[in-house]
Amino acid sequence: MGTLEGKVALITGAGQGVGQGIAYALASEGAKVAVSGRTLSTAEDTAAEIRRRGGTAQAFHCEVTSKDDLERHVREVVAAFGGVNILVNNAQLVPLGSLLEVTDEEFVGGFDSGPLASLRLMRLCYPHLKGDGVVINLGTGAAYRQDSGRYGAYAAVKEAIRALSRAAACEWGADGIRVNTIVPFASSKGLEQWFAERPEESAAFLATVPLRYAGDCEKDIGRFVVALCGPDSRYITGQTIALDGGQAYLG
To answer: Does residue 61 sit in helix, strand or coil?
Structure first.
């Protein structure tokens, strides 16, 4: 039996990249996975691969910027699996560009899909998480860059998620709910696009990673999330943990 046998995990943005890697890893330890995505076909691909590996998963369509959609989504997941024990808020629109370039609409989209969606889902899942629930939210290393030009709006919405995570950890600890933030640097499609569009900048950044590579979404990010959700991490909450090969200094 896996360390997460009998648990139900809801993962947003699980159709690709970090969310997909986390979904694969949690399923490998026995968790039933609700694969959430705004593009149903990619969510279905992830769920199909989990089932091919012998796990249990179901794909769900969800637009995280819609309050009604989030409410419907949680109801559907609870109806399908009986509850939610692990919530991973991974979906995020990314408002990139200088402060003069980022539009109001892009910034609001980043906020709605990030901190607001994360807060809404945490509230919706709260009754089901009580007792031994775990919430994993995602931050960004962009918030710790020495030169944060072009990344300020993105860092701002992600730092709001980190603040909400710390508050939830403090307020819900007595309810048996642990809340942590991870800051991954992983080999996702977004990273591949960054390397293709800004090769000099991305190569310079990679050179600042002590381990000299971008993490694997499943082996490096997903497996750590498994550990963070498991019983051996029962005393860890309210933390921000960089999964970035040592690049960011969070002291």
So the answer is: strand
For the chain, how many helices (H) and strands (E)?
Answer: 9, 7
Neighbours of 163 (CB within 10 A): 11
Per-residue pLDDT of the chain (251 residues; tens, 9 = 90+): 799 999 999 999 999 999 999 999 999 999 999 999 999 999 999 999 999 999 999 999 999 999 999 999 999 999 999 999 999 999 999 999 999 999 999 999 999 999 999 999 999 999 999 999 999 999 999 999 888 889 999 999 999 999 999 999 999 999 999 999 999 999 888 778 877 888 888 888 889 999 999 999 999 999 999 999 999 999 999 999 999 999 988 86
**Is 0.90 surpassed by the pTM of this model?**
yes
Enumerate the active-site residues.
154
Q: Give the N- to C-terminal CA distance of the chain in Å, as an integer.
A: 37
Structure tokens at 115: 């901190």
Give which of 204, 216, 203, 222 is closest to 245, Cα–Cα.
216
